[in-house]
Design goal:
217 residues, 0% strand
Length: 217
């Protein structure tokens, strides 16, 4: 069986994307070369639709904040240590004061290997793809060029990828109005999370002052 034969089915292209996104750089290059040798249209489709760290952190701040909010501290630290300066700045902007302090302390204690950073990147890519598949991130709004819907799959399976017959910005599951409603809800959740984080910071400060008063008393 060829490299891509097993993925030539409904939902198969997404499975192939996940494989490509979560393998190491060397394997990714090897697999891509194999796909190119078998079917150049599939290779072009993979390159067009595959997530990357650079692509993810080019998205708007609210979206990046949603993603970072789902990651553990170690993954955030390793990601910041491994990405380019402008991406570091964008990630840091999503952190509240106490979270930022914790991450900075964690980073100061780390001297990660390339393998550890690569693992953190894979965790980020995995999480983002999961958020997309679970409906927590809507590429139709964030990055329409990355949308993979049933029309796109039909086009690819029929060998017509690149013909322009199907626009990748079409919404497959949600209507435009539903997507807008969900976007509004996501923004509200983000605002509530920010308020909750601010209240937690104030509570921590108040507890610290109370402890100081108790020591003096």
């Amino acid at each position: 069986m060829s490299m891509i034969d097993r993925y030539k089915k409904k939902g198969g292209f997404i499975q192939l994307l996940i494989l490509m996104e979560t393998c190491g750089t060397q394997k990714q290059e090897k697999f891509l070369k194999m796909i190119e040798d078998e079917d150049m249209s599939w290779a072009e489709a993979v390159k067009a639709k595959m997530l990357s760290m650079k692509r993810i952190f080019s998205w708007d701040d609210n979206t990046v904040a949603e993603i970072i909010g789902t990651l553990n501290d170690m993954t955030i630290s390793l990601t910041i240590l491994g990405v380019e300066p402008e991406m570091k700045e964008k990630i840091t902007r999503t952190l509240n004061h106490s979270k930022k302090r914790k991450i900075e302390e964690d980073m100061a204690e780390r001297k990660p290997t390339p393998a550890e950073i690569s693992t953190a990147f894979v965790q980020v890519l995995n999480q983002v793809r999961k958020m997309i598949l679970d409906g927590f991130l809507y590429l139709e709004k964030i990055d329409p060029a990355l949308v993979v819907n049933s029309e796109f799959e039909d086009q690819l399976l029929s060998g017509n990828f690149g013909s322009g017959a199907v626009k990748t910005t079409q919404v497959d599951v949600l209507s435009v109005h539903e997507a807008k409603d969900m976007e509004t809800l996501k923004k509200k959740v983000f605002e509530l999370k920010s308020e909750n984080d601010a209240l937690r910071d104030r509570l921590n400060q108040a507890e610290g002052k109370l402890n100081q008063i108790r020591k003096i008393a």
